[in-house]
Structures are given as structure tokens and as C-alpha cells.
Design brief:
about 220 residues, alpha/beta, Undecaprenyl pyrophosphate synthetase, 8 helices, 6 strands
Length: about 220
């Protein structure tokens, strides 16, 4: 099977999954975090070299203070020593893409620590987009570029490798400002399942669909 080098996932539907079950939205985010752990491990098992997930957008800061606070706590749990040990054991590099300066000093320190400790790992790259927006990504890259060319913009993005397969869960069919530069030639795959219900079998289904496609890149 032809396996994509770089998969991007818009993990949509946590709150709707919870609402459907008469549960608080925070429970949906918790289950979404559990789904992410399973899917990230399955990507590694299937030979995917890079996984980038959309966890928190630049627009998500507009949600209720209670929800944002809870999400920040979930993000802190992603960077525990136990998880760092797992990343090191599996030779996984972890990057956080986005406006890191907007997070608490505590979370910034945890992010800096895990990125530094895993930066030489090379078997798999796991990117988490936090306070991320595709337009913001391009703007900051343009500000840092020495000249305005595609190559110069690309190398100054938070992460420059193009997406091969972009998956979105939750029934919506749009990319919502996620990796818009890197997804210029991505194959798009939409799942009706809400993110907490997305399983390893669903990922395999997306991979099989990708395997059938012919990528021409405009040629």
C-alpha cells in the first residue's frame, strides 16, 4: 500500500460527540485526547513519517474561559515526563506549531522542554498545532523571509513539509485555516464520524482511499 509521508488531521467534533450523548463538552475533549493517543500510535505503526494534528486554532481563544482553561490543562498533560519518556523510547520528535507566546509560562516551559529533548529523534515526527492559523503561519513566514519567493516563504513556516493526506472528521467539509500553504496539493478525506469516535479502522479506511488516488500535481 502507498502510505502518505505526511498526514494532517483536523480533529473536529468533540463537543458534538458529547452533546449527542448528553455529556458536558469537556468530556468530549477528554475523549478526543484519548482518540489522538490511539491514532498517533497507529500512524507510527502504519509507517506514516509525519503526523500533524489541529488541536487549538487562533480562533479558539474566543471560546468560554472555562473551556479554554480545561483545554490548556489537557495540553499540559501532553507534555508530562511519562509521555516524554515514551517519545524518546519510540524515537519520536514532537513539535508545537503556532503562537507559543500566547500560552502560560508554565506551558511554554513544558513545550520548550519536550521539543529540546526530542529534537534529534528521527523515526517519526508528531506536530501539534496549538494557537495555530494557516494565515498567521504565512504572515509570520513572510515577515521573516529575506525575499518573497515560494521557497523562502516555505522554509520560514512553522513546519514546511507539504501535506500528502488531509483528514477532517465531524462531517464538515472545509479545511478551516489549517496548513493552507502546506495543503496546496493534499488529498482531502472527510469522515462523518466525530473525532472521539474515530478509530484505527477509520484511519485504515482513509489510507486505503488514499492508495487508490492518482496524484498529478497539475501535470
Amino acid at each position: 500500500m502507498k502510505v502518505p509521508v505526511h498526514i494532517g488531521i483536523i480533529m473536529d467534533g468533540n463537543r458534538r460527540w458529547a452533546k449527542k450523548r448528553n455529556l458536558p463538552s469537556l468530556r468530549g475533549h477528554q475523549k478526543g485526547a484519548e482518540a489522538l493517543e490511539k491514532i498517533s500510535k497507529h500512524c507510527q505503526k502504519r509507517g506514516v513519517k509525519i503526523l500533524t494534528v489541529f488541536a487549538f486554532s487562533t480562533e479558539n481563544w474566543n471560546r468560554s474561559k472555562k473551556e479554554v482553561y480545561y483545554l490548556m490543562k489537557l495540553f499540559e498533560d501532553l507534555f508530562t515526563q511519562k509521555r516524554i519518556n515514551e517519545l524518546m523510547a519510540k524515537d519520536v520528535r514532537l513539535n508545537v506549531l503556532g503562537q507559543k507566546e500566547k500560552f502560560s509560562k508554565k506551558l511554554q516551559k513544558k513545550i520548550e522542554q519536550v521539543e529540546e529533548l526530542t529534537k534529534k529523534n528521527s523515526k517519526h515526527i508528531f506536530n501539534i498545532a496549538l494557537s495555530y492559523g494557516g494565515r498567521a503561519d504565512i504572515v509570520q513566514a513572510a515577515k521573516r523571509a529575506k525575499r518573497i519567493t515560494e521557497q523562502e516563504i516555505s522554509k520560514n513556516l512553522w513546519f514546511s513539509r507539504d501535506i500528502d493526506l488531509l483528514i477532517r472528521t465531524g462531517k464538515e467539509k472545509r479545511i478551516s485555516n489549517f496548513l493552507i500553504w502546506q495543503s496546496a496539493y493534499a488529498e482531502l478525506y472527510f469522515s462523518d464520524k466525530h473525532w472521539p469516535a474515530f478509530t484505527e479502522k477509520d484511519l485504515d479506511k482513509a489510507l486505503k482511499d488514499y492508495d487508490k488516488r492518482k496524484r498529478r500535481f497539475g501535470r
